[in-house]
Design brief:
The protein is α/β, with parallel strands linked by helices. It contains 21 helices and 14 strands.
């Protein structure tokens, strides 16, 4: 029966030569290390009793070889060759039981073992090899069984999460919990798509991710265990356990099970680019919210492939465009940046430009390419040269985008809209949640807000256009497809309901501000 995952902890590393020598049964033989003391942390894969001089041909690597040396006595050349054959076979260690054949460690074996770096241990008291073999083999078998059981338990749990519709992050959180180390998912270019684990540990890994990832290569040194992510004959990424401290074989099994689950999740979860989009969305959302300090997000940005050293950052917000559309334009223009949907149809774009590039010209070029395909207005904040200022810039761009949303004056705005371009509308947007502003709007527009019939809705639309066009009656009549006399009648009805004279500048301005505040409050 599979043990519940809650009880699992990473399996300790495989038994080493050093650990074998501390076993109670071995200590009874009074072991002494006479050569290769610096290599005692070698893992022991198996224990093998062998007396033959050509024992090396029987080994496959990682064995601790036990011998009395009875067939080697009196022949230093055979003794030396015996040790060399063990070294060639990559044995973990050789243990020589002292007795009739060798009352002390033979110099020929000891010198060659030291030169080869092969741990050589002698037992000063008679010791039944069968007991050591039984003890070590049983421990190794139990470990293998535990690793396989853990692997199957992880597979079962991850599959259950996938079938229940769990998001990618939930799967990775489980993998990180059971591996007790940071988990990173990357594409083939080493760009980080997702992470899991304790935040400080993850940040340490991501701080210089590209160098670390390339340096680690395909090896598993220092607990870096990776598994390839591929499907339909195409490899598209990898999952890495970073600094796994358990048994390497168990870590490989865990990584393989995680990779299987991620491939299945991706196949069932939508388009191939969704993980890249989720990564960008998580980063930009955290930047905008300000919940996580920008400096703490710097490793994630760098690991996601965004250049961050000595750069100029241009925060943008575009409405009614999907992130993948904006990504295509960025790639087409060769502009480094990321794009992700925030909320309410707004997509944030963060450009990362070299300091000697013209940020204004490149932003205008980006906006022009969008508009060439019937693109929307691009809201932009002033460029930032400090990463810590990026969150405020993104919020400023979002504010500008909100200010021009659903504006009848949007057609007259430039392709790239800045805070200075939204004037009064931008100020009112900033103050829309102030109770005094809300009360002012209700009071000024009371005559038109009391009902929701078709007539009131039509009058509000006329008032909105009339004020947005600078009280231009001809333009207002044209936009609403009515005659001038019909427009005059509607304006008279509006003035009567509100009790104001729209020809008076101050009264018209007051109504205009109230209407902007009302629209902003309505979202």
């Amino acid at each position: 029966m599979t043990t519940p995952l809650e009880s699992w902890e990473p399996l300790a590393p495989a038994l080493s030569v050093r650990q074998v020598l501390t076993l109670e049964r071995v200590l009874a033989g009074e072991p002494e290390v006479v050569a290769g003391a610096s290599q005692l942390d070698r893992p022991v894969r198996w224990v093998h009793v062998a007396e033959a001089a050509d024992v090396g041909v029987m080994l496959s690597g990682g064995e601790m070889v036990l011998t009395t040396g009875v067939l080697l006595a009196g022949d230093p050349d055979k003794q030396a060759e015996y040790v060399r054959s063990l070294h060639r076979a990559e044995a973990a260690a050789v243990v020589l039981g002292l007795g009739r054949a060798f009352p002390a460690a033979p110099d020929a074996m000891r010198r060659v073992a030291e030169r080869c770096g092969l741990p050589m241990v002698v037992l000063h008291r008679p010791f039944p090899f069968a007991e050591l073999t039984e003890e070590v083999q049983s421990r190794l078998v139990r470990r293998k069984f535990a690793a396989v059981s853990l692997s199957e338990a992880v597979r079962t749990e991850l599959t259950a999460l996938i079938t229940s519709g769990a998001p990618l992050q939930r799967l990775l959180d489980e993998v990180a919990r059971h591996s007790a180390c940071p988990v990173v998912v990357t594409n083939l270019a080493h760009r980080v798509l997702a992470t899991a684990g304790e935040r400080p540990a993850v940040d340490d890994v991501l701080r210089d991710w590209e160098r670390i990832a390339r340096q680690a290569g395909g090896g598993e040194g220092d607990g870096w265990i990776r598994a390839e992510l591929s499907g339909r004959g195409e490899q598209w990424g990898r999952i890495v356990l970073c600094g796994y401290r358990g048994d390497t074989a168990a870590g490989r099994l865990l990584a393989d099970r995680a990779a299987e689950a991620l491939v299945l999740h991706r196949m069932l979860g939508g388009p191939s680019g969704s993980w890249e989009e989720q990564s960008a969305q998580s980063l930009l959302t955290d930047l905008v919210s300000g919940v996580v300090p920008a400096r703490q997000l710097l490793p994630r940005a760098r690991a996601a492939g965004l250049p961050v050293n000595r750069r100029t950052f241009v925060p943008l917000v575009v409405r009614d465009r999907e992130p993948e559309q904006l990504d295509r334009v960025l790639r087409l223009l060769g502009l480094p940046g990321i794009a992700a949907e925030l909320a309410d149809g707004a997509t944030a774009v963060l450009l990362s430009l070299a300091r000697d590039q013209d940020a204004e010209a490149l932003t205008a070029h980006f906006a022009a390419r969008l508009r060439s395909t019937s693109g929307p207005v691009v809201a932009a904040a002033a460029p930032r040269t400090a990463w810590d200022d990026v969150p405020a810039g993104l919020r400023e761009a979002q504010h500008v985008a909100d200010a021009v949303a659903d504006s009848s004056a949007a057609l007259d705005l430039p392709a790239v809209v800045h805070l200075k371009d939204v004037h009064l509308r931008g100020l009112v947007r900033l103050l829309r949640d102030d109770p005094h502003v809300q009360s002012f709007a209700e009071r000024e527009l009371d005559g038109l807000l009391g009902g929701r019939d078709a007539e009131v809705v039509a009058l509000l639309a006329v008032l909105r256009t009339y004020l947005a066009t600078g009280r231009n009656k001809s333009r207002t009549a044209q936009l609403h497809h009515v005659s001038r006399p019909a427009l005059y009648r509607r304006l008279e009805a509006i003035q009567a309901r509100l009790g104001v004279d729209l020809d008076d500048f101050e009264q018209a301005a007051s109504v205009h501000i109230a209407l902007l505040a009302h629209d902003a409050q309505q979202g």
